[in-house]
Amino acid sequence: MKYKLLLFILVSLAQLSKAQQTEKRYLSGTGNDNTVNWQFYCTAGQNSGKWTMIPVPSNWELQGFGKYNYGFAKDSVKGKEQGLYKYEFQAPAAWKGKRINLVFEGAMTDTEVKLNGKSTGPTHQGSYYAFKYDVTNLLNYGSGNLLEATVSKHSANASVNEAERKGDFWIFGGIFRPVYLEILPAEHIDHVAINAKANGTFTAQLQLNTSGKATDISAQIFTTSGQKVGTPFTAKMGAGNQTVTLTKILQNLLLWTSETPNRYKVEFSLLQVGKPVHVVTKFFGFRTVEVKQRDGIYVNGTKIKLKGVNRHSFWPTSGRALSKDISILDVNLMKDMNMNAVRMSHYPPDDHFLDVCDSLGLFVFDELAGWHGHYDTPTGTKLLHELITHDVNHPSVILWINGNEGGHNYELDTLFTKEDIQKRHVIHAWEDFGGFDTQHYREFNYGIGNYNLGHSIVLPTEFLHGMYDGGHGAGLEDYWEAMWHEPLAAGGFLWDFADQGVVRTDLNNGKGPLDTDKNRGADGIVGPYREKEGSFFTIKEVWSPIKMERREITATFDGTFPIENRYHFTNANQCSFTGKLVKFTESQEAGKPFSVMAPNLKPFEKGSLKANLPTDWKDFDLLYITVTDPHKRELFTWSFPISLPNKMITKLVKTEGAGNVTLTETDSLYNVTTNGIQLAISKRNGILRQVANSKGQIPLTNGPILQEAANNFKSFTQRTDGKNLIIESTFDRKTAYNTLQWTIYPSGWVKMKVRYFPDGYFTFLNGVNFSFPEAKLKAVKWMGKGPYRVWKNRMKGGTLGVWSKAYNNTETGEQPLIYPEFKGYHANLYWCRFEAAGNPFIVATENEDVFFRLFTPAWKTDQWHNYEPIFPSGDISFMQSISSIGTKTQRNETTGPMGHKYAFYDYEKEPARAKELTLYFDFSGK
Asked: Which stretches make up the Glycoside hydrolase family 2 immunoglobulin-like beta-sandwich domain (predicted)?
């Protein structure tokens, strides 16, 4: 009997404990990966005029309803497109006597709600904000209930349309975030706002809903694993009081930063007559954010530089309906790029995105919507309250933004401070306001110069506007180094994270294509499905908090590397450093690891990294250093050449052969045969006209053609040097000052050497071109930097090694989304094997810093023609200088010095300083 009584008491206590917690009963799914079908009727556009089913949450365009609109579309605020939703559910009789709230996390745009035929409250206007209705007295307990929601895609409030729908992004309709019932005790804690400072001071403001009885509030702080931190603390409330403040000072805490995202949880208990009535648990972090005017942003007393990106809530198949898995994916990708910040553009995100920023560590700028227009004051006041009520406790949120690019309602600025217990600073994106100059897309010379001469904290909330493959990584190093060293610079945010390519269910039988609205949505560092583009890796290297300086590996190398710790809170010795030596043999890569001592460098300190190299390190070709952070995330892998191209060429090129080189001449050609190779070279200008071997022709012709230099090779002669045949032009200072020499070896290898003077002091493109039919090239395998292509102002992010990729015709940001792109410039060539339709050939060089170029991508452009890079003539090129690339808002030369042309001086002085380029060809087809 005693055991039965004890079991009854334990079960009762467990049930009581469960009843004390807030219960959340979902009526929809929890995200785009977990939906619930509701009845649906669309009033206009696709599949309109009939009742059917739709998954919730979702945007109805992506489910085949209504009309697709980009924000600039002329009808984006004129339509009468509505979605009528119905959903039936049961309300258990046990809920009677409790408080029941109906919560919508987000619906686009005006939402009118009825329950059992009765209005739940005023129509909610505004898309991205959680709103709730008290439906306690509207429910049928113990039986069925009918929920009806009418969602208007376009708001009846003109200011909402100005703020949300006339923007540079896709415009959707529908219930796109979860809907649920919140079941609370009749006496309950209604809201909690926390301010937990780095000095251990914990303050919480609680809003209560009680019947006026005397009430006690008790709180206990825990680690996330459940260990108690400090002792409980309480507050007593008199009858009728509905607000209470609790404070506590704690010691020896782990602080929250983007590098150390240490979180705690606090449990609040509402007690009446000593019994718990309601228990609420909140996660938070101890940290202090301070803005010091004419100085910078300080977190926990440390001045920080923000390495950030703008992020839209977007997925190609579901629009703005996302999931926690997508939030985890996005934050991990940002952290993988060594970012420490993200801006919510241009509206508040899903709650789970902020949860992930809290747990993985990103500073967040949370934004009240407004693109070039803003909410009116009554509407903005309500939505601002919903924003801060929803997001106030996230330690990741360090600043608020009141609208974007003119979409600022100045009357709301003081309300942020009034609503926010933490009194976080408010900025206006694109304005010099509140001590912050956040101007967008300033040219490097004007922007950096102006910022250096100003007095506000410099924080461009958008800079380097990506478009296709431009911007982002291109120009970033110039901007970042200026930002890093300028005391008033607080960093900045790139535009933007992911290409907004939406699946068009109204085209191709609902299967697409992906539509970026031409160049408007192709702004991402990653693709629509988070495919990594080339700038991803450039950003990763440039923003690495461990900065590896340039280091040439010579015979006197002692294993030390100069480095700088650009962390804000982390000692370099908390990272892991590993090394590997690589030797490239004819058949495979041979590697040998070595240890690297982690240096004791405090944040912002410079010092040396010491590699414990084996005695035979000079026998290897490349050296790699990999750094991983304290959370086991790779910061970057740096590569350093030990063997330069002139050494590697001796291993690759075979000049000796058993046979002889034979030459016959016609009126116009030198016809050369050696070891099964047949060459035809023009006697007039030395151009390669034809190549063949036992397998047939190799269609590499019409080269070398010099780019941005005079093609004045003349007066060719031929001679022998031992068994080698040499065909060369004659130098003439006035008419034939550029020279070409061919050397054909008995082995079948062919050497080409050009000496040339660029046409001017300043040039972009120097090198030689050849013709090759694009359809004949199937793949390439090369030794050099890879695997992504480069631009003059985006050289970082690659790694030296052996790479391969099959032919593709990808235009960055457009289908097909195959990365890395095949076409373009590739850096630091040693050799390349061209898979040419069954008859491959190899090109190698003894020169350092040679680029090889594969064809010309089919470039699209923008209305200002800022983006367009320059390509040489011909199809395949071997270059010693290449073009930079612009962004959507800036030409290449305005993104910084790396975007400028190359300078070539002194070519008229004696001795003449010509550029030299030497290539070796293996046409054997092996």
From this structure: 188-287
